[in-house]
Fold this protein.
Amino acid sequence: MIPLSTRMRPDNLDKFVGQEHFLKPGSLFYNSIKNKNFKSAIFYGYSGTGKTTLARIIANEMDNEFIEINASTTGIKELKQLLSEAETSFNSLIGKPLFLYIDEFHRWNKLQQDSLLKALEEGLVKFIGSTTENPFFSINNAVLSRVRNIYEFRKLSVDDLIKIINNCIEDEEKGFGNLKIAIDQDAVNLLAEYSNGDARVALDSLGFIIENQTEGERITTDKVAEALQRKVGFYDRGDDRYDLLSALQKSVRGSDPDAAMHYYCRLVDGGADLITIGRRLMVMASEDVGMAYPSAISTVTLCVEAARMVGFPEAGIILAEAVVLLASSPKSNKSYEAFQKAMSDVRNREIGPVPDHLRDSHYKGARDKGYGKDYLYPHAYGGYVKQQYLPDDLYESGAKYYFPTENGVEKGFSAYLKSLENIDAEEEK
């Protein structure tokens, strides 16, 4: 039986859901398809986000011969045969290039990837390679330079997945519209959230539930949790994960490791995903701990990366260390406040240009314009020399953004900056 996720693939751009950061009516990408002048591209990102589906839609819209292969099962011999046939077809009366889609393109070695170069240069093929790896590390530069268009496929949002699930339930042709499925909205929401941005997981899980439940039975959150082998968590107690994240951050900010650990455990027990928790912890490290203990962000980032490598349940131990560290660290939000104040000026004030002595002077003609001419190199003065760095108007108004506390490590930075102020004051006497 064909999996539901395969059966429900949309066949035109208007039915495609997600990736609106590059694909929406009026965008250059969208117009290139509609105008039939789409060139080769690399699609990279998470599984179940529409890479293969969009490649098929593009091929259909372009009205080209379409061949789809997987790099894990196709070798260089088969590829050369395809390219030979593409050359014959291109040089015939048809004169159309082959539309070649290669899934898991990163699995090919350098020699295999380079086999495409001649065909790309001569226009024999229009090529889309898809990969879950970062193409700048997994794909040869020679291929990237000829493809140029690289599109990142992000995880689908919960709203995107809810739309996809509801479309499947209502679709009478390919979905379950003729079965009049009874499903709670909470169950749809839970399925979307637990699918972690992956439409394939969402649809195939829905298909599994519908195909194996008692006829006429209503789909509830318990059924979804059973299908995904996940605890319902938040829906059992009525907890809101955003309230728990807020309580966690406020407990950390208040230096209460016990309360922080309590809310962290409720998040884990409730089914919050590792990335959601990890991101919030990294924000806390800079927003709330900040310069009082600058190493916190490094330690927390390492904890989050380690947690991602091992996954739950062991990841819970690693993230717990980050929670305790943050709650037990001295606090300062002064770097965060400095960022907000400076950004407000950048966005709301009329600000002059970079002072001439700070401008780049390494290109021909820069010195003739006076750029960099009067710059004082601090290292030549023992590490510090007084000079103007802010644009004129901000300097003249005495703009100041960073006001360090006396907390933790920041006390040392505060003392250093005050010593520089004293040097300036002495020089002005």
Q: What stands out?
A: The longest strand covers residues 125-131. Residues 410-428 form the longest helix (19 residues). The chain is about 50% helix and 5% strand. The mean pLDDT is 89.
